[in-house]
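Appendix C reproduces, verbatim, an entry submitted by the partner laboratory led by Prof. M.T., so that reviewers can inspect both the input and the predicted structure.
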Amino acid sequence: MNKQGIALLITLLFIMAISVSIGIGLKYVNDASAEVENENFLFQSRVVADDIINLLKNSQEIEALAKEDSVEGLFIFLSQSGFIPFEIADLKISMEISSARAKFNPNTLCDGNNTIAVKKVDALKEYISRYRINHTYVDILLDNTNPGNTSYNSRVFDENPYLFREYIASDMHLEDINNFYTQTYYDNNLKNIDLEKLFYVSPDRLTKIDLNYATPEVWEMILGVDRPRAEQLSLGGGSYFDLESLALDEDEITSLSRFEVSYFEPSLDIRLHISKDDKNADIRFEYDIKNKKGLNFSYAI
């Protein structure tokens, strides 16, 4: 059986295991919480998330992907299991699985020792200027990612005194920053960039960009190339093993050196949407395959 066939089998086994595991867990929740509908839905959502994490931890197939350090195997798995819809009991569930290292983590603009990564900052400023966004936006990001900083570039904390100051903690935190920029500087040009495809927020300042999953927006930013070139590089994902396999020119190689990149980062971005009648829950977390650990959780219920 070839690698693609093996990856497809892993995906099918994965989906079957999800259904069985969650179904068993929900049976007990339904028995225990039938009288209180809202609490029942909350418990059910937690059970779904917990069972998926346990399934990932105990899956020999998923573990094999990390042990083999297989760029091709992980790429095929993510390609075939990117979106999984299923129903358990009275819940409709959809699960999206993607690489958690496909985008740029804005918290890496500054390390934990208050040192600003100047080359990354310059690259991001160059990128946003092409979309008519003022450099001030990057300065505001720095205000929110520089721990211990007491000299701010903006009034973001005057306007939002309860905003967390050590790092950008969540997508909602980033949204607050974006709203502050738009409202303070009367600039709507952030809409010119798909920030959802550019940024992935993680408190880990050591994250690398996995070039096999980098979006066109990320390629544009890290290399300073035009959109067609960025899309070409993005379409080549799954075939990158080293610098030579990227087939970059000298200027592109120099630009790339400003960032921490990788060709194999076994970290999954898991998104769950759970619905029951008029109730909805959105749960997102990162799963570190090698360390069998779920982290960076966010809940919206």
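The mean pLDDT is 87. Additional entries are available on request from the coordinating office.
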